[in-house]
Task: structure prediction
Amino acid sequence: MSRRRQIYEGKAKILYEGPEPGTLIQYFKDDATAFNAQKKGTINGKGVINNRISEYIFTRLAHIGIPTHFIRRLNMREQLVRQVEIIPLEVVVRNVAAGSISKRLGIEEGEMLPHTLIEYYLKDDALGDPLVSEEHIAAFNWASHEEMQDIAAMAIRINDFLSGMFAAVDIRLIDFKLEFGRIYDGDFSRVILADEFSPDNCRLWDFNTNEKMDKDRFRRDLGGEEEAYQEVARRLGVLSGEDN
Amino acid sequence: MSRRRQIYEGKAKILYEGPEPGTLIQYFKDDATAFNAQKKGTINGKGVINNRISEYIFTRLAHIGIPTHFIRRLNMREQLVRQVEIIPLEVVVRNVAAGSISKRLGIEEGEMLPHTLIEYYLKDDALGDPLVSEEHIAAFNWASHEEMQDIAAMAIRINDFLSGMFAAVDIRLIDFKLEFGRIYDGDFSRVILADEFSPDNCRLWDFNTNEKMDKDRFRRDLGGEEEAYQEVARRLGVLSGEDN
Ligand SMILES: Nc1ncnc2c1ncn2[C@@H]1O[C@H](COP(=O)(O)OP(=O)(O)O)[C@@H](O)[C@H]1O
Ligand SMILES: Nc1ncnc2c1ncn2[C@@H]1O[C@H](COP(=O)(O)OP(=O)(O)O)[C@@H](O)[C@H]1O
Ligand SMILES: [Mg+2]
Ligand SMILES: [Mg+2]
Result:
């Protein structure tokens, strides 16, 4: 707390200035929103769990060579990250139809997609995060062609890795949202994974029962969201340590 | 058993004619060999465990769209598979230096490779499975250029998926060997994953202790190979069912 400077407060997290230049502190709140913040609420303990799950996943992604902003977890709700220039795209990877794609294209929820899809949405709450194509991204220069190639390649690798990770604990990874950002090194820049990976930004269904273990419990008033988030953490073996 | 025809007996498995044309039964033995069969032995119960682990992994790979020969497990030691025309290559994927690459290139065992490597070895016991390059493969027509592209793409996806799967149970996937084969559909053929995936054909190290949980225990006379194979199965949640 003390006198550190708040840089941004979003729907689920707060960003503070970090201890060194080029770093930020990401603070995970319990606040939950849905439908572009028309629906608001709280999921008790969510921030603590998401901080841990995101740490776990970003650390393991780094092991397979995916560069991420994650430096280290600081405490229950905070992690130290590298400051990036956020690329204003929500990168959505879908294995199974659910949520907006089911509605938009009339595909029944739960139907396996012909193959894994990557979608890009402009990150702009005022516009309701509209779907954009690579044409739009190039035309408006939100990211370069090279950056998009890196992003797509990383998204596919992340999907395969995390599909395996969740499969091992009997969870199907239906879809998820990623954010990427640029870091600069002199005249050069490269793209790294930023933001978070948690049940807030993905769909996780129990392999055997198809029960939802993600923010859809909140979006759709299914109840049991605290337990669902905890169960994901428990299966991943997170939240077992002493210093939760 | 009864009067079905044995088609091939290899070092770790026996192939029998299957119940329908185009199928085979793969029987998993407890026999273990190393160093091109110069060293021979038995790992008690290995066949039962490998049958299960391979079933588990091939089933989950199919879920993410990797075509495999696996049809279904028949009993403790046997599985029904599609008969393929084996491509005579051992496809080795390496994340961390170990075994032959450490010796051949003088890289310390355990050193992370600059990036994931795919190597191809000619499957020929008499020649000691020599390393070959894509030049050799093209020149001698062991596989077409297109087939090699499919094989490389599948190998990379399999690596990412299984790295995640094992990471979730605190195991590092160091390296592994795959075999692919052709199935024909009229004039067309396509490549699918064949053979098996088990601790016989990969290196698995405990994330925390670096303890070896694979055939290196046998190769290097470390002891405890039965327990190691069982521990892999246990962590994956295989071998918990009633009908082991
Ligand atoms: N490493 C980073 N550097 C700078 N900004 C980041 C980084 N990681 C995430 N962000 C941004 O911080 C915000 C995280 O807070 P969040 O509550 O998710 O915000 P929002 O409501 O905008 O989604 C997001 O806007 C995200 O784009
Ligand atoms: N679906 C399949 N169709 C035909 N042959 C297969 C199939 N899957 C694996 N094989 C082959 O069956 C044999 C499996 O037995 P194994 O004991 O591993 O033999 P080896 O000692 O030759 O490695 C291997 O030679 C492998 O190439
Ligand atoms: Mg956000
Ligand atoms: Mg073999």
